[in-house]
Amino acid sequence: MQRNSAKLNRSSSREPKALFQRNKEELEDYWLSEHSQFKDVRWEFTPTTPGLKKTASTINWSIELFDGSKLTDPHHAARLHWSKTLLLTLLKMPAEGVPTMVGGVSAHQQSFKWLLSWMAINGYHVPSQLTAGVVSRYIDELPQFMLDCTDEEKITVSVARRALEALANLWRQRIPMAQMGIESISIDPFFRKSLASIADECAGQSVGWIKPIPDEVAVPMFNEALWFLSQPAEDILRLVAILAQHPNEGRAQRIKRMRRDLRRFEFGSGKDSSEPWHRPLAELPSDMYGESAAHRTTRMLAYDLLGACAIIVQGMSGMRISEICGLKGGIDPVSGLPSNVRLESSSRGLYEWFLVRSLLSKTKEGPPIEVDWVLGMRPEGSNEIPPAIRALQVLNRLFSLWRDHAVTDRLILQWRGHASLSHPSGTLKPILSDSLRKAMRDFIVDWVNLTALPNESRQKVSDGELIPWRESKGKIFSSHMLRKTWASFTLAANPSLLGAIQMQFHHLNMAVTEGGYIGNNPLQVEALDSVSRQRRNLLIYEMATGDSIAAGRMAQTLGDSIAEFKDDLGELPTSERWRIVDEWADNQELQFFFTEYATCCPVKTSEMRCHEISNTSLWFRRYPNFATRDSSVCAGCACAIIDKSHIAFWSERFTKSQIAIREAEAVGKMNGFRVILERAEQAKKILRKLGVNVSEL
């Protein structure tokens, strides 16, 4: 402290140079406070506001960006320099005359993290590259980007505002930045709108816009992850065991033995041949960066195995990343199943359900509590192990080597660098969400080949949406996408499974299944609302663009309403079309309820047939009557929409009815078949409306 004070006193004893007059070396040595110089990784200031913590007056420039790198890494040198310079000008050369309060400098760390992470992912290094088009793209992509990088399912205005503040400061400080030799952005990033209004728009757009992983990416990703749990998993577990052997040996002797065993290791055969699935470790360079290549490769393979297991568990259950981190470790010695997994029989005794218990942290009030998640099922008496259970078994085996050295009972532990794989220190803690997300992302980059992806998905929501997947090799992956992928697949496979999705996501007002395995757990609504909203928007979008033909009385009504903005879509980009559809549907306050035979849009409440049957009061007709509705009731209802997603149901109904009718005709017993004839005719009319050639059925 005395040295720093003396430094400041010596500087003040003579006429100081202005900041913009200093060369690079002089700027690096500049003392911002009695604690910190410009070149320091940590800037500390003395708080001037009573009651503030010291951390509020500190900024750590070793910011971990959302791609897993740190701002202090060499390839971020340009980004680090201008970020430091921007905050320096806010403190010492404020364009508006009032310097930033030192008690709030910590807030700038998160603001820089958002903008710099996006710039790093998209290849931008300096502010001058942020042209009008690039800034518009950043603001457009920000809602999705924020959702991809957090555990949240919607973004608050305050978080959105924080992600935009660095842009606002670059514009505000453009003249001082130029004096410091750095060209800042040359246009108002908000185009004369206020930061608050842009933040409000971003927060509004984020609700319900977590996109599922496109099928073109999801299919190879799941295939590779499932394959990785077979022969590769067994080989990696044997490799890791080599690292953990003989912990009581001397360091030199242990390393010598370990390297010898790794060089002799033989990998099993690959997917489609008798050739090993991995290059022999003996063929790798003997030493790099002070660590043997065999050791480093084993460590990387262990992380890839962790990522593959996490992808399978989350992708086949819909769990949040935090709830996977909350799983407890251990294997039941009798059943061989993870100790936190139990089997329950269905009410009819035909199936067994695999349930896992974990902490649910997203409760509305109170501390986290334990809830159940369904990880799979099998016929009663079968020995089949669902993939998600297999993944938990592999994780238990992987981390069992360090279980005695951990200070937690959590399943997944936080490895502390490469050395902990071979000789842990006894202080291993539960894994952090960011570390688990990085392992999942690294597995995709390392093992999922996306080089042959087309530019666009078959069901695109924006133009060229597969290009970022291909060019980033999967680095744009977000764990939230797996939850949405699970829900979207389940709903697409059978819309009547909406209740199952509600239960799996632990939502409010769910109905208990036949097994009653959920009980009274607290529930969350965001994920389900998001899936329903996107499915609603997809139906309206396809009707507006002519990509889908719809039948049903509500389809005609909806088509007439869509006409008011249909012509406006024109040659607009796909993403802008989606934005218009979403805004229109929200303004109309449309709610859709999906089944395998029809979609209900309860707008004409006085004509809802399911409620007419039960004489429900008009005041209570906000939703379909689930007790009375069926395919025949919905088909003629004023609120029904039938589109291509329902073709399978009506095709099956038509063919089954025709078979029954022809069998009856063959034996001359057509009495009592009036209902079957009506069903066949009804199905035929619907299918023809949807463009199906009924004669081929």
What does it look like?
This protein is mainly alpha-helical. It is 47% helix and 5% strand. The protein folds into 4 domains: 18-206, no CATH class; 215-327 and 386-472, no CATH class; 525-642, no CATH class; 647-696. It has helices at 2-12, 24-28, 77-92, 105-122, 132-148, 157-172, 174-179, 195-206, 215-228, 231-244, 251-264, 293-315, 321-325, 387-400, 433-447, 467-472, 479-493, 498-504, 526-545, 553-569, 574-587, 609-614, 631-635, 647-666, 674-689; strands spanning 42-44, 58-60, 341-345, 351-360, 369-379, 593-594, 599-600, 640-641. It has a 3-stranded antiparallel β-sheet with strand order 3-4-5. A 3-stranded antiparallel β-sheet has the order 6-7-8. Strands 1-2 form a two-stranded antiparallel ribbon. Helix 9 (215-228) packs across helix 12, helix 10 crosses helix 12 (293-315) and helix 24 (647-666) packs antiparallel against helix 25 (674-689). It is globular and about 105 Å long.
Keywords:
697 residues; three-stranded antiparallel sheet; 25 helices; Putative phage integrase
Shape: globular
- What is the residue-averaged pLDDT? 79
Amino- and carboxy-terminal Cα gap: 87 Å
Number of strands: 8
Please describe the biggest sheet, giving its number of strands, its sense, and whether it closes into a barrel: 3 strands, antiparallel
If strands are numbered along the chain, what order do they take across the biggest sheet?
3-4-5
| Beta-strand residue fraction | 5-15%
The number of helices is 25
Catalogue the unreliable spans: 1-13, 506-528
* Rg (C-alpha, Å): 30 Å
Helix amount, in percent? 40-55%
Q: How many structural domains can be distinguished in the coordinates? A: 4
Decide which structural class fits the backbone.
mainly alpha
